[in-house]
TrEMBL record:
Pathway: Amino-acid biosynthesis; L-methionine biosynthesis via salvage pathway; S-methyl-5-thio-alpha-D-ribose 1-phosphate from S-methyl-5'-thioadenosine (hydrolase route): step 1/2. It comes from Treponema rectale. Its EC number is 3.2.2.9. NCBIfam families: MTA_SAH-Nsdase, PRK05584.1. Keywords: Amino-acid biosynthesis, Glycosidase, Hydrolase, Methionine biosynthesis. GO terms for cellular component: cytosol. Residues 4-232 form the Nucleoside phosphorylase domain. It comes from the Bacteria. GO terms for biological process: L-methionine salvage from methylthioadenosine; L-methionine salvage from S-adenosylmethionine; nucleoside catabolic process. InterPro entries: MTA_SAH_Nsdase, Nucleoside_phosphorylase_d, Nucleoside_phosphorylase_sf. The keyword Cytoplasm does not apply. This is adenosylhomocysteine nucleosidase. The keyword Transport does not apply. It is an enzyme of class 3 (hydrolase).
Amino acid sequence: MQNRVGIIGAMDVEVKTLKSLLTESSEKVLMGLTFVQGKLDGTDVIIVQSGIGKVNAALCTQLLILEFKVTHIINTGIAGAMAHGLKVLDFVVSTDALYHDMDVTGFGYKVTQIPQMECSDFPADKAMIAAAKEAFDSLKEAQGHSLVAGRIASGDQFVSSKTVKESIRAACDPACVEMEGAAIAHAAYLNKTPFVIIRCMSDMADDSGESTYDFNEETAANLSAALVRSIVGKIQ
Ligand code: SAH
């Protein structure tokens, strides 16, 4: 079967460049979301802006799977750096994704654990992770930046305080923090659809968060999109 890759970004800045590269494109609007179908360097893709936050991301993922029958999902975007040594404009490719704001510890669950569910830490597809690493090694836009393969933690919160950053680190030690990836991973997991999350760091998720973010938003979003572009044709 030929691949049909769904590409999700939360914000326009994360998807507009990829959309502009599509050939044979057409649009369909569902639930207020504009799904743009077309070919990206010869591969069938559907690109969509989900909106910010976990519920927007999960609903969008479910539509991509049910209505557009995607074979793979890539989440592209920006994030706050958490891993030691990771800097602004470095990259993270997900090994797994979870919710840092899931807390039912009052009933004896581990922080981040989803009650009554067999999985709380959704594993990304190994072949897609490998494709990301291979694409990164030959991406000229990424020269001078590093790529870390690691856990991504998502929550409905912009992390811009050292105290919150440290408590998330203590809870689940992620490589980066953002607001959609784990919800996309969750929906993909329930549908048995392979996924990977690619994020380029816009900020350090610390007290300098908003200003660093504003300065780097567009550059980081475009770097992530450039890596996603070169992964799409490498997925087996
Ligand atoms: N600037 C936007 C809001 C952006 S919210 C506005 O004014 O409307 C932050 C977005 O970037 C989310 O989609 C999230 O996934 C990602 N992100 C980047 N850095 C983050 C951080 N430190 N904490 C949480 N999300 C972050």
